[in-house]
Predict the structure.
Amino acid sequence: MRRILFLLIGVTLVLAACGDSDDTGDETASDDAPATTDAPVDGPLDVAQLLEQQPDGVVDVTGLLFVDESGPRMCELTLESFPPQCGGAVVFLVDLDINAVAGTQTEQGITWKDPHVASLQRIDDTSYRVVQEG
């Protein structure tokens, strides 16, 4: 009889917890509304914002500067390993002179700088020209 009582209490707790997560999901959904591109930007965009907004002019962007055999790119997230790995949203960089970027580190064929700010101009949906290093 005790087993059945404990089982019923456990099922009740699990169902109550599931009910709470549905409420949280609704609140998160309302917070995920797209940002307006008309609002002024305070500071540089991160890579995910850059890809979402797709601005046509020159814009300052911050993220992990990451260069390996695939070429230079700016990443939204720094995956913690050594050397670090590129994670999250990614844009590919054109006209980057990695030797002109101060403060980079190189290990095992990977060069990076985190955080890094650069002025970029859109070429296409995932490629950006480096206009100026920050």
Summary: The first strand starts at residue 45 and ends at 46.
